[in-house]
Amino acid sequence: MTQKIGILGGGQLGLMLIQAGIDWNLVIHCLDPDPQASCKDICTQFTVGSLTDYDTVYQFGQGVDVLTIEIEKVNVEALETLEREGKRVYPQPSVIRQIQDKRTQKQFYRNHNLPTADFILTDNRADVARIVAEQPDFLPAFHKLGRDGYDGRGVQRIATAADANKAFEAPGMLEKAVDFEKELAVIVARNASGEVRTFPTVEMVFHPELNLVEYLFAPADISAEVEEQAQTIARQVADAYGIVGLLAVELFLDKEGTVLINEVAPRPHNSGHHTIRANRTSQFEQHWRAILDLPLGDTTAHGPAAMVNLLGEPGHTGPAHYEGLGTLLAMPGVSPFFYGKAQTRPGRKMGHITILDSSLKALREKAETAKNSIRVVTV
Question: What residues contact 86, with CB distance under 8 A and at least 6 apart?
């Protein structure tokens, strides 16, 4: 394939996209503000520049045939101009614009009768204080920034009226807390021809302090009925957006067995990293298939899998060293993936570990052992 493909963003998601694209000899250009970004040494051409600056994104897009993203925080106005001029931009700028802001994202679900937790849009901290005073039954709730919140940033739990002072002094939304049984996710792909495929539903377990995915188990330990609910909702969301590319749909399973949309990401996602080893087609290859309008790949899993995020150790900031790698590599069915980040810091995503085994019970034990066998520290 001789067409040039551009990726906005050069982090670990871009790295794994490029690794999948190398198998097909894809010509991939990458734009990222960090001169030491994960992608810098493996893409065809690397450009240092802002993802949110109109001129930088527009000029970068002019030099490629197809443009995609690995992060939502990009200049959508530049993408809209490129699209109007005939450039293929996937996911489409209109989809990125709707998803960039959690307020418009949630309103989209409501407008399309898609199941999600109840919410109230807010403009500032005073709005939150007024709402919790007038509607105490709406608590507990979470105040979420409309824009630029990720990996637990931009979220505050509001349990009592007194907590209103923790709310953000910026446009956001107050979302009623869901009493959930499990947190689930489905990766769904849709190409320009309208073909849609989903990956099996996975279960996510979050780190209690960092609010990052700590463990992922695939398939999720849920009933056939819940699996069908999750898969159907993921397809409905992808079709409602009309997205071309990947959509990661994060879900809550509440105590009554109802599946609700939490939020979505229009790109490869942490909840699909295990697919590199665990499924016939990885989420990264599937993204290329979708945006190049090729037949979507078989998403069947080879068997049960788990994924553990590899985070920088507390108290360690500086050049990264992977302590215990030999022990980890000696474990059967365990594959580490490192993200090419030279510097570690506490809680930074430095890689992940995929674990394969014959049962979910064995996976849970092996995942814990694998997690404890390696540490990202400074030398």
Answer: none
CA–CA separation, 197 and 187 (whole Å): 9
Res. 379 pLDDT band, cuts 50 70 90? confident
**What's the CA gap between 230 and 38, in Å, rounded?**
33
User: What backbone torsions phi and psi does residue 199 show, to the nearest 5 degrees?
Assistant: -90, 155
Percentage of the chain with pLDDT > 70?
98
Tokens of 176: 């009623």
Q: What predicted TM-score, i.e. pTM, was given to this entire model?
A: 0.94
- Residue 22's contacts (CB-CB under 8 Å, 6 or more residues apart) are 42
What is the pLDDT, as a whole number, of residue 153?
A: 74
Q: Where on the phi/psi map is residue 245: left (φ > 0), alpha (ψ -120 to 50), or beta?
A: left
Of 293, 284, 238, 288, the closest CA to residue 265 belongs to 238
Q: How far apart are CA 44 and CA 35, in angstroms?
A: 15
Taking residue 28's Cβ as centre, other Cβ atoms within 10 Å add up to 23
Distance separating alpha carbons of residues 169 and 171, to the nearest angstrom: 7
Structure tokens at 57: 């994104």
- How many helices (DSSP H) and strands (DSSP E) are in the chain? 11, 21
Predicted confidence (pLDDT) per residue in 316-338, tens digit: 999 999 999 999 999 999 999 99
**What CA–CA distance (Å, rounded) separates 99 from 246?**
13
d(CA 101, CA 122): 13
Alpha carbons 234 and 265: distance in angstroms, whole number: 12
Helix axes 12-22, 283-291, angle to 10 degrees: 70
Distance CA 85, CA 213 (A): 39
Rounded to whole angstroms, the Cα distance separating 129 from 162 reads: 8
For residue 109, give the nearest of 265, 244, 262 by alpha carbon: 262
